[in-house]
Design a protein that fits this description.
With about 150 residues, the chain is of the alpha+beta class. About 35% of the residues lie in helices and about 15% in strands. It has one domain.
Length: about 150
Amino acid sequence: MKRIKRGFTLIEMVVVVLIMGILASMSMPYYYKTIESSKATDALAIGQLLASAYRMFKIDNPNNSLSGDITASCNSGGCNIGDGNACNLVRCNYVAPQDWTNASYKFSVGGSCGGAAACVDRVDTGGPYDNWGYSFNTVGGCAALNGAPPCPKF
């Protein structure tokens, strides 16, 4: 009488685990790039919002300019249009307060963007996507910087 085999042999299990490891190691870079592309899309939308808010600020206050980074400290304080602080976009209700400091990107407006209305730059994490960013000009145009996913075409 023959004995019936039950289960898998050790070799079969090793082969299956090896194949799964190879597939996982090949897919991880694509997974991380997808996550970074999602963060970049979010930053792109917020950057366009900041550029539009900056243009509205300039229409309302043609003799005043803003320059600087938008940080968590912008969520408090009073509106002082004449001081040139970028936080006035939030403080004067052109943009809603949010957690600016813990975002994956740094948000800036006005003079700190080299003549652009707004710009966003990836916060350095030591990864391959640290140089990604976007620049938004004063007429609504967008430019991807340093290999970031392209701006959408409307």
